[in-house]
């Protein structure tokens, strides 16, 4: 394995940032002079002590060599913090013990073929380097030195790394932004969600030192969108994926409140809604989706919301206090919002067309068990019906009328009835879009147009797990991976996507984890107890397990994800 270390050596101090005179829509311009140089490990061997400050280092004996069998992990305490000690193929490895995403204890995860998979949300880390290999999350783990002396295992670690439990990969910077024309960039990323951000970060991690511009309709820098429905009173800065300084440090320019209206592929130009034009060399489209709105009478009354931004979520929480809430759609978003508002609102009602929540996704039996949990928490369901009218009093919502004839008192209505890809601006572009509006990409996230890539919720791509069937997987983890694959292929790495979809939902302090792609399943094999909400459900198609879901059964979903990631087939008889 050839290891490359990217070192950026500045020749002069960075000059002060200058705001471009064109106003808020213009990117910040940084004057940076630097030279990127590649060093090969064999040319410049790393010194045996990588810790600059001896006072920052702790070394401790953590166990006897025979205390761990091959394939075992152990959390060990070094006094200033904990580390994860791993033994695989007779070798010992040590790294951070908490997943940098949400802090899950990795000792409860799954060790397989040189990597550890998080038990909660499926992120994977290389045990030799600590590098993140599958998502969600952005940071890698710190790696610690291990030595064996007189049959004892010692770990040498930085105190700071033990305390932070995360490591941002080394990144390049832009060599000379001051030389650029404001209206041209090497890489333009449309959309600032997980796919867009991971694409930008991956480019920098791979040593790309040219200009990167991200643009977003949002007013905020990239943030943790799944928290909008799981933790609704979070402020934008609390859920930011990276602080402002990060974007400055690595010269990733973000244009907020900027909407691309059209793409001219012939002239490699993006045209913005305000008329501003930007030329690009490589383009990533990661615009996500747009929530569907109600089409019934009275849909324009006040206090009817789609949860799209932190402001939407915050406003709903504020208005919901001791009021009557109606949620339309027993989707992931709808159910998470219902769970979150139960303790705050006077009443919470859910209206849904299907007979049980999540029927198409989790199946009827799991859906019914989840529904019962909600009913035990005072949530009322109105199933197999839809909204026919929203009634107002002095412009504000007063009642929700159902097609069944039932009238529900309502001060606030949250709509979660699905979404459509935000790709309308590409209709005349020549970029291949399917009948549902999804951008069609190959395994390298390339569209039919050279130099144009697409990622995230707005695409269909070939899923290796399902014999390369073209699928849309609108999940947080998958968006991260799409962004990484797109970046690597902008740099001509020829990298194909082969990740296993992984998602989770959280309601009333309980989580359902899910891995695979269960679309079109014809049977569900359930182990455990649905009534106790301690179960694992295997979704099968013909004789093959295509997906798994669990509640209070960790780390089964991560185990199945590792088996599927290795390309192995799980048969129905194996789980019955």
TrEMBL record:
Subcellular location: Mitochondrion
Molecular function (Gene Ontology), one example: oxidoreductase activity, acting on NAD(P)H
Keyword Nucleotide-binding applies: no
Gene designation per UniProt: Aifm3
Family listed: Belongs to the FAD-dependent oxidoreductase family.
SUPFAM superfamilies to which the protein is assigned, alphabetical: FAD/NAD(P)-binding domain (SSF51905), FAD/NAD-linked reductases, dimerisation (C-terminal) domain (SSF55424), ISP domain (SSF50022)
Annotated InterPro entries: FAD-oxidoreductase/Apoptosis, FAD/NAD-bd_sf, FAD/NAD-binding_dom, FAD/NAD-linked_Rdtase_dimer_sf, Reductase_C, Rieske_2Fe-2S, Rieske_2Fe-2S_sf
Keyword Iron in record: yes
Example GO biological process: execution phase of apoptosis
A single GO cellular-component term on record: mitochondrion
Pfam families, per database record: Pyr_redox_2 (PF07992), Reductase_C (PF14759), Rieske (PF00355)
Keywords tagged on the record: 2Fe-2S, Apoptosis, Electron transport, FAD, Flavoprotein, Iron, Iron-sulfur, Metal-binding, Mitochondrion, Oxidoreductase, Transport
Domain Rieske: from-to ranges: 60-155
Protein name: Apoptosis-inducing factor 3
Protein function: Induces apoptosis through a caspase dependent pathway. Reduces mitochondrial membrane potential.
């Amino acid at each position: 394995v050839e290891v490359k270390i990217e070192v950026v050596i500045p020749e002069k101090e960075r000059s002060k940032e200058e705001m471009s005179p064109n106003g808020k829509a213009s990117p910040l311009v940084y004057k940076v002079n630097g030279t990127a140089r590649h060093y090969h490990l064999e040319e410049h061997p790393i010194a045996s002590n990588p810790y600059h400050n001896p006072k920052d280092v702790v070394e401790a004996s953590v166990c006897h060599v025979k205390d761990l069998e091959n394939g075992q992990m152990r959390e060990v305490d070094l006094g200033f913090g904990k580390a994860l000690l791993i033994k695989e193929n007779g070798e010992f490895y040590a790294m951070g013990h908490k997943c940098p995403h949400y802090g899950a204890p990795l000792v409860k995860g799954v060790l397989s073929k040189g990597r550890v998979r998080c038990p909660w949300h499926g992120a994977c880390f290389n045990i030799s380097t600590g590098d993140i290999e599958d998502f969600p999350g952005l940071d890698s783990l710190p790696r610690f030195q291990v030595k064996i002396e007189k049959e004892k295992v010692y770990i040498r670690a930085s105190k700071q790394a033990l305390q932070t439990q995360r490591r941002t990969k080394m990144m390049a910077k832009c060599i000379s932004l001051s030389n650029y024309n404001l209206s041209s960039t090497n890489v333009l990323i449309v959309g600032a969600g997980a796919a867009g951000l991971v694409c930008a970060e991956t480019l920098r991690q791979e040593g790309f030192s040219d200009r990167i511009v991200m643009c977003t309709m949002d007013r905020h820098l990239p943030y943790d969108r799944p928290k909008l429905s799981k933790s609704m009173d979070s402020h934008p800065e609390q859920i930011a994926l990276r602080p402002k300084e990060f974007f400055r440090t690595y010269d990733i320019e973000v244009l907020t409140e900027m909407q691309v209206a059209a793409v001219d592929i012939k002239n490699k130009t993006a045209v913005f809604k305000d008329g501003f034009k930007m030329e690009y060399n490589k383009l990533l489209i990661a615009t996500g989706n747009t929530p569907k709105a109600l089409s019934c009478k009275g849909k324009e009354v006040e206090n009817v919301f789609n949860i799209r931004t932190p402001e939407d979520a915050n406003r709903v929480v504020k208005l919901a206090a001791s009021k009557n809430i109606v949620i339309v759609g027993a989707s992931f978003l709808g159910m998470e919002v219902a769970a979150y508002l139960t303790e705050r609102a006077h009443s919470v009602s859910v209206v849904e067309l299907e007979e049980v929540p999540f029927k198409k996704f989790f199946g009827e039996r799991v859906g019914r068990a989840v529904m019962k949990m909600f009913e035990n928490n005072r949530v009322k369901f109105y199933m197999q019906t839809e909204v026919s009218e929203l009634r107002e009093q002095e412009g504000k919502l007063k009642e929700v009328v159902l097609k069944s004839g039932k009238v529900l008192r309502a001060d606030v209505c949250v709509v979660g009835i699905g979404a459509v890809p935000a790709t309308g601006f590409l209709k005349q572009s020549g970029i291949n879009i399917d009948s549902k509006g999804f951008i069609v990409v190959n395994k390298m996230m390339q569209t039919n147009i050279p130099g144009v890539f697409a990622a995230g919720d707005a695409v269909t791509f070939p899923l290796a797990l399902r014999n390369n069937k073209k699928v849309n997987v609108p999940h947080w983890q998958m968006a991260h991976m799409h962004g990484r694959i797109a970046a690597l292929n902008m740099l001509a790495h020829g990298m194909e996507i082969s990740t296993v979809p992984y998602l989770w939902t959280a309601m009333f302090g309980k989580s359902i984890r899910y891995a695979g792609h269960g679309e079109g399943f014809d049977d569900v094999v359930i182990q455990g107890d649905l009534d106790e909400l301690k179960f694992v459900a295997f979704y099968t198609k013909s004789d093959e397990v295509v997906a798994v879901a669990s509640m209070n059964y960790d780390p089964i979903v991560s185990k199945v994800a590792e088996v599927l990631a290795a390309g192995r087939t799980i048969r129905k008889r194996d789980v019955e």
